[in-house]
Amino acid sequence: MSSFTETDQLAINTIRVLAADATAHANSGHPGAPMGMAPVAHVLFNRFMNFNPKNPKWLNRDRFVLSNGHACMLQYALLHLYGYALTIDDLKAFRRIDSITPGHPEAHDTPGVEVTTGPLGQGISNAVGLAIAQAHTAAVFNKPGYDLVNNYTYCFLGDGCLMEGVSAEACSLAGHLQLGNLIAIWDDNRITIDGDTNQAFTEDVLKRYESYGWHIVTVLDGDHNLDLIADAIQKAKEVTDKPTLIQLKTTIGFGSKKQGTHDVHGSPLKADDIKQLKEKFGFNPEESFAVPQEVYDLCHKASAKGAAKEEEWNQLFAKYAEEFKAEHDDLIRRQKGELAEGWEKHLPVYTPADPAVASRKLSENVLNKIFEAVPELVGGSADLTGSNLTRWKGAIDFQPPATGLGTYAGRYFRFGVREHGMGAIMNGMAAYGTLIPYGGTFLNFVSYAAGAVRLSALSQVRAIWVATHDSIGLGEDGPTHQPIETLAHFRALPNCMVWRPADGNETSAAYYVALTSKHTPSILALSRQNLPQLEGSTIEKAIKGGYVLHEVEGADVTLISTGSEVCIAIDAVKELKEKHNIKARVVSMPCMEVFDAQPKDYRLSVLPDGIPSLSIEVMSTMGWEKYSHEQFGLNRFGASGAYLDVYKKFEFTPEGIAKRAIATIDFWKDVPNIRSPINRAFQQLI
Amino acid sequence: MSSFTETDQLAINTIRVLAADATAHANSGHPGAPMGMAPVAHVLFNRFMNFNPKNPKWLNRDRFVLSNGHACMLQYALLHLYGYALTIDDLKAFRRIDSITPGHPEAHDTPGVEVTTGPLGQGISNAVGLAIAQAHTAAVFNKPGYDLVNNYTYCFLGDGCLMEGVSAEACSLAGHLQLGNLIAIWDDNRITIDGDTNQAFTEDVLKRYESYGWHIVTVLDGDHNLDLIADAIQKAKEVTDKPTLIQLKTTIGFGSKKQGTHDVHGSPLKADDIKQLKEKFGFNPEESFAVPQEVYDLCHKASAKGAAKEEEWNQLFAKYAEEFKAEHDDLIRRQKGELAEGWEKHLPVYTPADPAVASRKLSENVLNKIFEAVPELVGGSADLTGSNLTRWKGAIDFQPPATGLGTYAGRYFRFGVREHGMGAIMNGMAAYGTLIPYGGTFLNFVSYAAGAVRLSALSQVRAIWVATHDSIGLGEDGPTHQPIETLAHFRALPNCMVWRPADGNETSAAYYVALTSKHTPSILALSRQNLPQLEGSTIEKAIKGGYVLHEVEGADVTLISTGSEVCIAIDAVKELKEKHNIKARVVSMPCMEVFDAQPKDYRLSVLPDGIPSLSIEVMSTMGWEKYSHEQFGLNRFGASGAYLDVYKKFEFTPEGIAKRAIATIDFWKDVPNIRSPINRAFQQLI
């Protein structure tokens, strides 16, 4: 006999009707997937998930990720029914400006939304990250008798998510990592926007996931048979050494006259269709956004159970505090996003007497110095460990213990050659709440992960890219690997810090700001080639994003530069002085976004009125007009050759800079009262 | 008895020694994969591939793609041995500046290199595109008795390529498309840069490819058994309704003292190691870059056979010309990259009396009008056909005939939700030489394909992105789908045209330039919302990239805008005139890259000295400082809501523009001789 009642069915139909009402009211949105997935959503939320809507941030809650984010009315309906801070009016404001119910789920806006989804393939990859974070946090903090962290991560996904390469990368790694705490439910409705999936997607998905090492379950009737759905989820929970994919056969837009067709995918139902839907499900066709009280009661009962579970957990955690004070306090601290007191004292400091070192190596130095003081810092590389230098000495790999290659308490990640998957996984890891993830690759290949980096920025997570080989200075690998457009790309992305440190102190500064910026991702662009430790650089100055590295009275020109070109600009100062009797000052600008946030008088002191300026950066000049009058860069692809030969070819030498500095001075000599580019006619909206 | 002799083995060892010599000479590069794959490379080039080194562009040649592009010394050695225009001195110049043997293979530089590879996963995806192009070209041009186009595409790839999501996308589609002409050979050496593949890559690759619908062959000894290798390739050729993956077990760096370890992956062998290698293989350890004459002879014999094949083919093609004159001439024309005479007369032309239409719809109009006149234009969408409007009326789908959904002669592609795969496939299709591919998705998701777009630009192929929903103007889908940084990103990419047309004539102009630019990819950013047909726009003006749309004598300010904001700028002119007695002129700038290529006096006529200018574009302002004195844009994420509400929120209204125009005039009023941003102190290197 089924353990489900008519009220369960009513709850399911309520979700369907709410989805139809909200999309019709918004005159936009996706009713089909919410209506098709309402049964599994109900079963999952009502019978399996542990959560407390009054405290959506409870550490040990089960995580729910809607990878097919266009189905968000499903999630909003659930959050409302279960008592999260999301009212019926919020549902009515679906897809309206400034609502907490936007067209796709946004984590930073809506209580109960764990990660920002919609761009397909991201959510399931975030879910892998959430599951990794759970496994690691459990391995570090659980103790005998204290199974503090044991939550599951559940993810809904559609055909689109399965077609995206990012999910392939993340799911292959999830299989390797044997993440038994991850349960993905595939809405197998055979419909995409273009129509039947047989037009483009005829692979054997289950076989593919088996090849990744996943456990597979199939539910042939996801529309009606709630017991089968519950059995499938239960079976998935019991397999603890493999992630599970549940194939759930559903009918898109179940209940609509057009159910099972792509007409219900991305457009609201017509009025007469909604009318028959409500009649069929026993709702009053004259009413909209109606929720039967017994449905609220059923859902709130589950929420109350979740709240009680949290209360139990709080008691356990209080007991844990007595026995494991340090761990307890550490876990509290991590959840606040704050770093351990005094951690920053471990950041390396350099003087000009220290040897020239590549900034990728300077980054490794930072990791070696701070890894103990910042235990929540975990990360790795997309198969470029020896090039990115992302692994501190003696690091233990995060690996399933069965492999013999590491443990789940390990903090170093072998992401494989999977940049996009790594980026999306980092977003999930950061969203879990106890970790700060970093990932290494060549700067040029951060672009492979652009979709994930964008969501780091939009969802305001602290993820750090260790992006080495940051310019044509990588030399022989050539133009296929030499970034030109990359910094411009990510500087144009809102809420993303792009750092390009010039030496050791600036590298320490980059880590300092990246690690202390709770709501902003960072990309650290680091050199392959050696860079001298500069006279005049300090961590304190560099954390302002831009500062005067070399001042001279009565300067004729300001040279502004970043990273590996700063030391060449310094040499150009000598060249200009000695050969041309020209006085140049030098500004180092390791991070434009941080510089922009400084008070205007500071910025004007760095880039003052009255003298012309020339920026020097060995890639696209795009964006530099905001800070400099003239720009020296590389608006073409690079070349394969020894680093110094490549720099010489493109005139990134003291002489090449001096030549352009002279041209700049000459071009601006007749302009009275030269205005710093810092001065603008109006403020930008932010 | 083996059909291979000692000379075959000598040829293989010659490749190995050349790879060791060249990487040692360059003091950089990857000897391991060339040494491991030398046997299969020899068998493939010597026994299977049809090619004529004297005419590397012969249409029906077999295509060879080195997806693991870091192994390029393998390819360079082959090209040299078989008599392509690549001398022993070119091998000595491996990875040197301005050589034709750069660190990764670049198609536009090196004869015999089909596509530019190195960024992992791209080559195999290009190979899918080459195979698609072959299937389509064959279906269109082959006739009974004229099997004109029947070449195979062979691709080498490594573990890294298999881990990348882009290859997963492309290979899933290749299986669906039943591309029997595609043969991929996986260098299964168990080693990546980080070490053993068991650290991150333990999936069952063969099972995965079976799940995609591929045919699978395994060669357990790829180091020695040439007959097994030949058998495997032969079997692969015989399976004509499935692509084949050959798993070839090899030893990385075969012959080195460190063979089978990641030490030989990315660093040259030490001198003593090279010495023992040469001794072991019977080479003089004192000599470098030595090629035994019998090896040249063996290779040149194969090349001569290829040349004879081409000669045979030329005769067949000459006979074809008699019977199928039109098709013959069409094929010749296509290979030159030239469009059919008069095609451009089909481009739609509009007057202000025509109704307001979304530019995605204007793009559909272009496709509907030109598809007959431009038969080499083929394309589709990443599962957004109804949104991108990429399908002309009555188009036939490119599908395996067995599916009943289309034919290989079909010109419309169902790419599935696979943006990155689509981009890389387009690069392969374009490289084949008979097609101009286009692909549709939302502008925001072109970023998923950034890795492929970059290679379109670097390898100079004509691929076109139909990128709709190009701004916050898409409305309700919200910030997850609203591009902010995307145009800046691709404008910063060298050799990539970014078009954002404002109306019908500009949309026709965008297609005109995109289709006639043989060596440059284009991104067409198109609106979801309706746009009026503008007074003053013409195709002739718009193909200059930027032009004066609205002129007024004694103007106080220039408003520069693109796409959907141009019509709002025009409304702002009225607002400024009527409410503030201010005279504004308007410049439409649909394509910066094309505008930049105009003579300076033209550019100065559009953006003259003497008056201040304000740019208006509803996304990142980055890059606009190059053209305007002040910038109105959106340097934050957008919002979910009805399109007009979103525009209003961010003040993209005639009033919002007028306010900023006034601020601009005010800010610049005391500056004498305002200089147009077109004037620069020095020229950029290009």
UniProtKB/TrEMBL annotation, chains A, B:
Give its E.C. classification number: 2.2.1.1
Q: Where does thiamine diphosphate bind?
A: 70, 118-120, 160, 189, 265, 445
Q: Out of the domains of life, which is the source?
A: Eukaryota
Which keywords label this protein?
A: Calcium, Magnesium, Metal-binding, Thiamine pyrophosphate, Transferase
Q: What general EC class does the enzyme of this chain belong to?
A: transferase
Binding-site residues, Mg(2+): 159, 189, 191
Recorded GO cellular component terms are: cytosol; nucleus
Cofactor: how and how many bound: Binds 1 thiamine pyrophosphate per subunit. During the reaction, the substrate forms a covalent intermediate with the cofactor. Binds 1 Mg(2+) ion per subunit. Can also utilize other divalent metal cations, such as Ca(2+), Mn(2+) and Co(2+).
Q: Write out the catalysed reaction.
A: D-sedoheptulose 7-phosphate + D-glyceraldehyde 3-phosphate = aldehydo-D-ribose 5-phosphate + D-xylulose 5-phosphate
Residue ranges occupied by any Transketolase-like pyrimidine-binding domain in the UniProt entry: 357-533
Q: SMART domains, alphabetically?
A: Transket_pyr (SM00861)
Q: Name one Pfam family in it.
A: Transket_pyr
Site Important for catalytic activity — annotated at 30, 265
Required cofactor(s):
thiamine diphosphate; Mg(2+); Ca(2+); Mn(2+)
GO aspect biological process, one term? pentose-phosphate shunt
Q: Subunit structure, briefly?
A: Homodimer.
Q: What does this protein do?
A: Catalyzes the transfer of a two-carbon ketol group from a ketose donor to an aldose acceptor, via a covalent intermediate with the cofactor thiamine pyrophosphate.
The record's similarity note reads:
Belongs to the transketolase family.
Give the protein's recorded name: Transketolase
- The organism encoding this protein is Neurospora hispaniola
